[in-house]
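Feature request, filed as a ticket because there's no other form

It would be nice if the structure record came with a short human-readable summary line next to the tokens. Right now we just get the raw output. Example of a typical job, pasted below so the devs can see what we mean:
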Amino acid sequence: MHDLFTSLLQAIITVAVPIVSAFAIRFLAESTAGAKESRYASEAMDVITTCVAFVSQDYVDALKKDGKFNRDEQKEALRRALIMAEQMLTAGAARFIESAYGDLMAFLKTRIEAEVHLQK
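Raw output as currently delivered:
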């Protein structure tokens, strides 16, 4: 009886270990990918927030003070924020945005404009 139990247990372990290992590896891979995506999304939002604040303080506020902040200057402020954001993003975050949203610059432009409204 003891030998039968031992043989049965070995058979179950032989079958179960590879299956459980495969699930564990897959779970860890998906968890790691999710953590990277979350980190890249967080990085992108931090960069955008920083760029909007910087351009606002460095460029927009002075023009507003002088009464010279017109439509052309708004476009220039957006251009500056876009360039700065593109330069500050890591390559990994840029690749993530392109794979998730398609167009890096369109994503940045949309998020920068939304952030401008939030910071007003």
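Something like this underneath would help us a lot:
The radius of gyration is 26 Å.
The mean pLDDT is 82.
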